[in-house]
C-alpha cells in the first residue's frame, strides 16, 4: 500500500509525501497548467485546487487568505488571492485573478490588483482597459523606459532629472 497522506506528531500534514516540512505540504508530479473541469478524464488542473461550490455567477471562485495575529491572540487575513468568474454567462470560463489587502487599520480586505482574462493588469482598478492600467499616482525610483508616451491629461511633471533632459512636445 502507498501512503497518500501523512500526519506527523508535530502536526505537519503531507499529501503525496510522508515527510512534510511545513504545516501543509502537497507534493506530486508537475501537472500541466490547464483549466481542470469536473468529470473530464485527464483534464489537468493543479497540484492543489481551491474552488467554491456556489452556482455559477459573476465574482465567485476560490480564494486563499494570508494572515496572522494582529492584536493579542486575534487573527485576521492581511491579504488574499482569489480566482473569480469574470461574468455571469453560463458556460463562459472567463476568469480573473484578484489580489486584496487590508487598508490601514481596517480589518476589511479590498482588491488592490487584478489580472483579467485578457491578461490586462490593473492596479487600483477592477476593470483594466489596457495591458497595464494604474489608477492613481505612480512612482518609478529607477529607470523608466518607454517606446512611446501618450499623455491623456494636460500636465506631465518631470523632476530630479538633472541637466541632461530632452523633451519634445507635439500639439497635433
Walk me through this protein's architecture.
- The protein is mainly beta.
- Helices cover 0% and strands 30% of the residues.
- It contains no helices and nine strands.
- It has strands at 5-7, 13-15, 24-26, 63-71, 74-85, 95-102, 109-115, 121-123, 132-134.
- It has a six-stranded mixed β-sheet, with no helix packed on it. A three-stranded mixed β-sheet has the order 1-2-3, with no helix packed on it.
- A hairpin with a 2-residue loop joins strand 4 and strand 5.
- It is extended.
- The termini are far apart.
- The model has no long low-confidence stretch (mean pLDDT 84).
Offer a quick outline of the entry:
With 172 residues, the protein is an all-beta fold. The protein is built from no helices and 9 strands. The strands form 2 sheets. The protein has a 6-stranded mixed β-sheet, with no helix packed on it. It has a 3-stranded mixed β-sheet with strand order 1-2-3, with no helix packed on it.
The N- to C-terminal Cα distance equals 76 Å
Strand content: 25-35%
Structural class of the secondary structure composition?
mainly beta
Overall average pLDDT: 84
Q: What is the general shape?
A: extended
What kind of sheet is the major sheet?
A: 6 strands, mixed
